[in-house]
Design goal:
The structure is a single chain. Helices cover about 45% and strands about 0% of the residues. With about 130 residues, it is mostly helical.
């Protein structure tokens, strides 16, 4: 079974700046998926949205509230299945550019790396 496409952007600088503008209140938060995509288009983010996504939920809490954001069960399982089948771990190109090397995770360590990245994402998300 192929892994479901995830939302992707082509310009991470534009994306990060747009996210920060929403977080700081400099731009109005998107209220619908169409408005979100429109704002991404206007900011030249290059948002690629999977067709299974049909709604938007924006969450911003004060720093005194820890948000435990869990990935969807089916997407975690799809990723694990793909990695077990020898798939590569996808990571944005800017990491390779910044570190001056290509991410190289031995196949035997792929699921551990996936667990580390998932855990890091959950603990650091929006903190």
């Amino acid at each position: 079974m192929p892994v479901a496409m995830r939302p992707e952007v082509t310009d991470y600088v534009a994306w990060g700046n747009l996210v920060k503008s929403w977080a700081k209140g400099d731009k109005p938060l998107p209220t619908t998926l169409a408005n979100f995509i429109s704002q991404c288009d206007n900011a030249d983010v290059g948002m690629l949205m999977p067709n299974y996504i049909n709604d938007l939920f924006v969450l911003q809490k004060p720093k005194t509230v820890f948000v435990l954001r869990l990935p969807p069960k089916d997407l975690v399982q799809e990723s694990e299945n793909a990695l077990n089948a020898g798939g590569l771990y996808p990571i944005p190109q800017f990491y390779n550019d910044r570190y001056g090397s290509v991410l190289n995770v031995p196949q035997a360590e792929m699921l551990n790396f996936h667990a580390q990245r998932t855990g890091d994402y959950v603990i650091r998300l929006c903190l």
